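Model: Ready when you are.
Researcher: Fold this.
Model:
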Amino acid sequence: MLTRVFLLCAALLLFRTTVVDAQQPAPAKTKAPTLSASFFTSYTYLSYSIVDQGTSARPMEAKGVGGTLTLHPDGTYQKRLQLSGNGGTMNFSQDGRFTFSGDQIIFRYTDSKGQARTDQGSFRFQPKARTLTLTLVGYPAGNKGIYTLRAD
């Protein structure tokens, strides 16, 4: 089971959908969140779950999640994510730009092959709890990754 979860984690992270800006649906009309300056900070990954519609509609939690995500007020970010499994650790590093509208967030970055990539989804920031939940569109369609982070 651990092997399957590990492989699903790797597949969702490495083969996520690339979204062409011109093909993106318009963001849902939601009230824009009021984000305090505390939103723009470094976060530590607490958990990562995968929804794989081919297996189950219930999220499967990945074990051994660690790393940080830093969101800057100028719209840049740095992601340093680690996933453990199969006796080793996989490291994922991204530096890019993010934008948000309402409860939707988009991360744009260049992958290790020099290709422009986009991850998009929704976010929920809870300033009192100092937590950020990101639900990002996965591959294939219908799948998603759910990240829970805590502000440092």
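Researcher: Now this one.
Model:
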Amino acid sequence: MTHRTRPLLAAVLLAAALTGCGGATTGATDPAAPPAVAPAAAPAAPATAAPLAASAPVRVRIPSAGVDASPVLRLGLAADGTVEVPPVSDGDKIGWYTKGVTPGETGPAVLIGHFDTARGPGVLRDVSHVRTGDEIGVTRADGSTALFRVRELEQVGKKAFPTAKVYGNTTRPELRVITCGGELTDGHRPDNIIVYADLVG
């Protein structure tokens, strides 16, 4: 199998903070109950699954968060060098950052979705229900499913976004799922919630 390496980190160094949500969210959710996760980490899953060949994601399932999203949007870089997020009109969909690897390949595959938008709750509105050990399934265009197990959950301010940790090269197939968090401030949420997962099947 050919090992593909892409310059993920170089492509996003200008994007010091990936927002994971776009557009004003005022009134979209109850600001008294902001999305949040308790920081948690588990040991990396044993390398029981071999890396997969490249194949674009077409469906994402996160049972603990009530997510079953299809089709998967394709995201790149915006004109200002920041990572694109799904448009507000597609708040119920998850996007895949195409300048990275496909889910199941060696490296960090990145998925991005809204917690909420001005139009209402987004696809990742229940991200706070996710726990370490939970599974994430990504159906791919070749008909295979890449199964990941959550290893870590992190909530960080957007100004302190861990770019190298999220996009830096890895020696094994990994997944990141990114959305917004924190209490609404001037119609926006100040934090990112990041789910880290390892390929297990």
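Researcher: Key takeaway?
Model: The chain has one domain: 8-199.
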